[in-house]
Design a protein that fits this description.
By secondary structure, the chain is of the alpha/beta class. The chain has 11 helices and 17 strands. It folds into 2 domains: 6-136, Udp-n-acetylmuramoylalanyl-d-glutamate--2,6- Diaminopimelate Ligase, Chain: A, domain 1 (3-Layer(aba) Sandwich); 139-300, 3-Layer(aba) Sandwich (Rossmann fold). The strands form 4 sheets. An 8-stranded mixed sheet has the order 14-11-10-8-9-15-17-16. It has a 5-stranded mixed sheet with strand order 2-7-6-5-4. Helix 7 packs across helix 9 (277-292). The radius of gyration is 28 Å and the shape is elongated. The two termini are 48 Å apart. Mean pLDDT is 88; it is low at 313-323.
Length: 323
Amino acid sequence: MPGKELTVEALLKGSREDMELELVAGEGGLKNVIRTAEITRPGLAFAGFFDVFSHDRVQIIGNTEMSYIQSLPPQERCERFRRILEYEIPCFIITNGNMIPNELISQADAHQVPLLTTRLPTTRLVSLLNAFLERYFAPEAEVHGELVDVYGMGTLLMGQSGVGKSECALELVERGHRLVADDVVILRRLSRYDIIGYSPNIIKYHMEIRGIGILNVEKLFGAASVVEEKRVDLVVLLEPWQDGKEYERLGIETEYHTFFDVKIPKYVIPVQPGRNISIIVEMAALTQRLKNSGINPALLMEQKLREATGGPAAYGRNFGISQ
């Protein structure tokens, strides 16, 4: 997300356990800001080449860089590090539990640039750090709706206020499915194809039902009735029934809703008294799961009708649909 920032202190707190990070020096720079998920290994900078030095990123010092640093005389080592610290650098992370020369510690304290260390090997640290930063800096957006895990499919219920989204989500939970978010869903794009949804912390696992008020779903139905986040697999748009509007009756063509240029399959379900919307949503989730496996019941039926009648026109006649 443009403009999103992460302090070194937040990185240290949020990933200390997984990455085994420890602060060695430069405590005065814990408020330094990380603005990108990219990371850099500053080997060329230590060698004196700064033409393409990406200084605004987390700097990783592995075995190769540390071996070079330790091969330098103490005075030269101090001068090389001082030159690097002339740039605005968020922090350094030294991997493999390498011993840190005193010159680096004193310079980091003097310039207030955090110097972190970990016992993890460089490849493992880079993998964990990339995952953490990519997730943190992933683009986000808020949408009005409900997100429910229905038969393993992240189902985003959308529609105008008062159409019955919360009531439908509550009935789905009562039927054994899991609530992710009510009313406000935060969508985060993790990759080219994946969008996850989750709830803001302040309203997590709560629902608002008109006439009753705020419900704590986890307390009412148990821990198995909620899940912290879920990949969005389909969008179900609930709308009041409109006489005269043609609604999908066959399911051959797939509609899509787009978030962050990611196309999510969409189902438009008209709401009318007497229709059990929660069961229809369950069928939408099961149908989409079947389609994801390469099976489209409507297309299979069309193929059988073509084979039986010898022409596409028979498809409409068999279902009583005008051509």
